[in-house]
Amino acid sequence: MFKAARILVAFDEKDESKSALIKAIELTKRLGSKLFIAHVQEVKISPPYETINDEPIIYEDSTEEALASAKQVLNENQLTAEIAILEGDPANAILDHAEQLGADLIITGTRDQNRIKKLLFGSVSDKISTESEIPVLIIK
Question: UspA domain location, by residue (predicted)?
Fold first, then answer.
């Protein structure tokens, strides 16, 4: 039987990541694992002409909403988890965090992208599964 003491799930509040979180909760309960949730903040820097004290303006993202959504799903399933807010490239941030935690499994959702967009840009879940040294479960 597969064993995973530490499960890391990538969460961004979209339906696909909610499905991934629910699957992670099921596996955590079944395997007696510890659950970790990672949300990667999307830091968007404005064009150079919009500055305050020579610093670019950083627009807020949906981090608070994502955290509230993750906590709600955890509460509904009567489970606790450590939640981390990461910054940077989503795939790299998730992979680095998994390594720091000593995670045994990464769970992520995937979106249906059109073929051209997927070919040109790839997806976060593709990059995680390709570059990860530990098992990755991708939930559709």
Answer: 6-140
